Automatic annotation (TrEMBL):
Organism: Penicillium fimorum
Origin organism lineage: Eukaryota, Fungi, Dikarya, Ascomycota, Pezizomycotina
GO function terms (MF aspect): oxidoreductase activity
Keyword Oxidoreductase: yes
Keyword set, alphabetical order: Cytoplasm, Nucleus, Oxidoreductase
Identification of the protein by name: Nitroreductase domain-containing protein
Amino acid sequence: MGSIQPEFKNAATTTLFELVKARRTYYGLKGESPVSDDVIERIVQESVLHVPSSFNTQTSRVVLLLKEEHQKVWDIAINIMEGLVAAGHVSQEMFDKSTKPKLSAFRAAYGTVLFFVDYESLATIKEKFAIYADKFDPFALESNAMSQYLVWTALESEGFGANLQHYSPLIDEQVAKTWGIPASWKLDAQLVFGVPNSEPAEKAFAPIEDRFKVFGK
Ligand SMILES: Cc1cc2nc3c(=O)[nH]c(=O)nc-3n(C[C@H](O)[C@H](O)[C@H](O)COP(=O)(O)O)c2cc1C
């Protein structure tokens, strides 16, 4: 973008987009935090509280895991993957060279946010608005993704690096058992965070002209 950008009226909008641009995927993370656990908790709570949901159904559920509790998720994933190797579903070479180092890197971080959707809580509204019945589940997932994005961006604003993972359904049962998760909470994503010890990868952008149109300007 070589052209001069128009100014925002509100300086906070500039800040907002600075944070949006600064949010990246960080894989190299240390088990340290630049802020108190209370600050992390506030980020997660405020995100879950204020992110919108269709018909204000508030379907997102979130579990914040720190330190040893965070390490348990990745021990669960490692154990399950080891089981898949033993059963012949994953090669030992693949596990040793790729899977184990990746999962160990997640384990070395400071925390993981588990994002769930409570689809069962939508039963009543699906009956009430039957015409939208098939839309509520995707809407709930979209709302959950908004929370993921906000927590990711806010954690990085506070000095963390983070990456978003999807080990569901592999880890679902063990996760539910370990933290007593209600049966109606369906795990969607895991956001791993810690103090970054490496830079994000180069990122290429497709031309915005191919992805955006404006009419009536
Ligand atoms: C919906 C969604 C799902 C993703 N799933 C994964 C994932 O399972 N594992 C992973 O390592 N990264 C995952 N990512 C991260 C993307 O690969 C990454 O955001 C993308 O390459 C752009 O890089 P950036 O985050 O540094 O801007 C996901 C991102 C999004 C938005």
